[in-house]
Amino acid sequence: MPKLPVFDTKEREEIRARLEDYMEQHQIRVKKLFERMQLALDMRDWYYLDLRSLQRFIANDVRTDDEKVLRYQKFLNFVVPPNKHEELGAILDTMLILPVAAGVEKDGHVVAVPFDEFYGRKPIESYVGRYVFESYPYGPEHTRCTGSPAHTVHYVLLPAADERFLTIFILVEDPELDDDPVLSGFRVVAGGSLFMRFGFTEFLMIQVGGSGGRFTLLSDVTDTGDDSVTTLEGHAISNVVPGQDREEDRVQLIRLTRLPEKV
After folding, report:
1. Where is pLDDT greater, at 1 or 237?
2. Which stretches within the chain are classed as H helix?
3. Which end of the chain is more exposed for a tag (fewer CB within 10 A), N or C?
4. CB 128 within 8 A of CB 157
5. Per-residue pLDDT tens for 66-95?
6. How many H helices and E strands in the chain?
């Protein structure tokens, strides 16, 4: 089992400064930072998270246990510096011209109803959370997401610095890391992708890397009779590398199912 890191004073100061920078950038307080840590980190990390310890660490009141500081550092590994995704998202967002209100007849008069209220759109921050990601080849035999994914992949959606967007961090389950105190069974494979509104009730995920990218259009298909489990479904279009990727992976069915929050 890997040895637990021991953080000296300088390392603790660096972690504290990075957390303070994150809070300032996102205009949040320690309680909201704590909530985001719970979303981003694995259940096996929750034992080492508590609001009071985090408050004391930020205030530098006492020397916080290394096990807890380790989780703060792990969270910071998720919140990578902003990249070009937000710039691309901002360009797309400015091109989307949607009405502010809809005209509805009431008592013989047409009254203006706010656009979000008319379409029942939930605020984008309500989609913050940790999701199980599933993908299936698109074709005659697969018109909906069915079956079980080959690997456990989690998408963590957290608020971006720009409140119009959420930032996506992708984690893949790795059994070899089950005993690793830092990674706790999951390794981060990508970070900084974008989740944004696109159209009336749809969302666009933008994932662009050095070798190409993927654009995914999603709809909220959550059961209206049971909205406790948020579910998003849609289609992804990706580039494929000749000789390396399967052609059938160019278009895929995608489903994201939000995991329950810690209670």
Report:
1. 237
2. 9-26, 30-40, 51-59, 66-78, 84-95, 115-119
3. C
4. yes
5. 999 998 988 887 775 555 666 677 777 776
6. 6, 10
Phi/psi of residue 205, nearest 5 degrees: -105, 130
Which residues lie below 8 Å from residue 127, measured CB to CB, with a gap of 6+?
Answer: 157, 166, 195, 203, 230, 232, 258
Give the pLDDT band (50/70/90) at residue 255.
very high
pLDDT tens per residue, range 94-121: 766 666 666 777 777 777 777 677 777 7
- pTM for this entry: 0.68
pLDDT at 254 over 80: yes
Residue type, 234: G
What value, to the nearest 5°, has the Cα angle with vertex 133 and ends 129 and 137? Answer: 155
- Cα–Cα–Cα angle for 136, 192, 88, rounded to 5 degrees: 95
DSSP string, 149-203: -SS-EEEEEEE-SSTTEEEEEEEEE-GGGTT-TTTTTEEEEEEEEEEEE-SSSEE
